[in-house]
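INTERNAL AUDIT FORM
Audit reference: QA-55
Scope: verify that the stored structure record matches its stored sequence.
Auditor: D.O.
Record contents follow.
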Amino acid sequence: MALVALGGAAGSVLRALAAAAWPADPAAGAVPWATLAVNGLGAFALGVLVGVAPASAGVRLLLGTGLCGGFTTFSTVAVEGVGLAAAGRPARALAYTLGSLTLGVVAAALGVALGAALRAAVARRAA
């Protein structure tokens, strides 16, 4: 649990820094690009981690559950989507929400593929 807490704290701080650097008010109709970027990057990073170290429990707890879990946020996507809809931007809300999900799945798939390729390359060099 200490590994999860440590990674989660770091990930949450990184997400807050991204939101502060790229602020947006969905209730005013602005697209929250920081959340979209953070979630895409986090999904990719988690995918790479899973591809590279699928069975490494300590690393997965620290970097996967902790860092990536604290960095990314589905609940914020949901609330921001509601904010966009409430601001009279239902099409933007739908595009943002579906785009966030699609970006996350594609980023994770690319990350897993890259991680697996890296793991295979290291195994070939070690052999």
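Auditor finding: record pair retrieved intact. The first helix runs from residue 2 to 21.
Action required: none
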